[in-house]
Amino acid sequence: MDPLSVALLAAAGGAVAGGVTGWALGQGRAAAHPTSQTVEERPREREDAAVADVLAVLRSSAIVLDDEERAVTVSPTARALGFVRDDKLVQPDLLEIARAVRRQRTIQEVELDLPRGALGTGEIAIAARAAPLGPRHLLLLLDDRTQAKRVEAVRRDFVANVSHELKTPVGGIALLAEAVLDAADDPEAVARFARRIKIESTRLTRLVQEIVDLSRLQTAETPEDPQIVDIDDVVQEAVDLMLTLAEGKRMSFRVSTADDLHVYGDPGMLVTALSNLLTNAISYSPEDSRITVVARGADDVVEISVSDQGRGISPEDQQRVFERFYRVDAARSRATGGTGLGLAIVKHITANHGGEITLWSQEGRGSTFTIRLPRAQVDGDGIPPTPLPDTKEQGT
Asked: Which terminus of the chain has a smaller tally of CB atoms within 10 A, N or C?
């Protein structure tokens, strides 16, 4: 628990204890003077309001229970997460912790996976801390650890996947090197193994570069030096880069772009994103087929679509294609040198430019990936009507 929460917990404890004492004194005065109407008759309301104000500042969700297990004070986040309904604590695990604290009069700390609501199978990871407050009340502080737990799981998976992916080409190069040594007297075998070493080393270089690129994209929320980018230039450069790869499979491009399509961003990163989509389209499409690239404006959005005539992606795989190292066809990815990082990189580049990427696919009819980015307005000379982000107007 962070220091602020600890300090506020102490403050909340004092406020609750004061509220209980004040309430008791107020009740005594009310019994002695049942008809008097003074400000001091309502200390409990004032103290409850003070407790609510303190708990509202906490980062944690907070619930104060009385000795009848009624929730007398509930922070908005605790109520929003569904822990309390009709002044009752509805999570049996949390209720059991509260009862243990009441029995033992000691602070309890646990981590729980609780159902997220009454419907569905979703869960929420909670770090719970329960402490007694005075003779009749106790405080529950609940930290939502779901996102942190998910990030940790992703990190572990990423490290495991990187280790596995690196071992494959490195192990292949080591075996091929041994084969070269054993075939030193056979020039044809040496040449064949050398070609395989070159392929594996190229794959390893590409994998390492894409891991570096993805890590850099994940740490940068926006392009470092955004500028006005002409989408027509991005499309033409990406297509030019892929021409040789496409010609190797006797494939052609059909390109259609509209005028006056501009976005704020990094042109190099956008070319990388589109190139990755084109590489995927080429790799998973049959020979003598066509890839269509369309750039168009829709209101305040620029859309860049890449459509192929491949075999399509199943609905199950469509949910996962943007995951790191995920491959729809692992055998074909190995044959084409795919790393499983291309679409993950596209997703991060698009997100860093304030956009999104969508997928339409039907098995047997091909796939269409669409990048959608916020449109930048410029005048006839290519100058934005307002200053670029993070720039200042110069006074005259």
From this structure: C
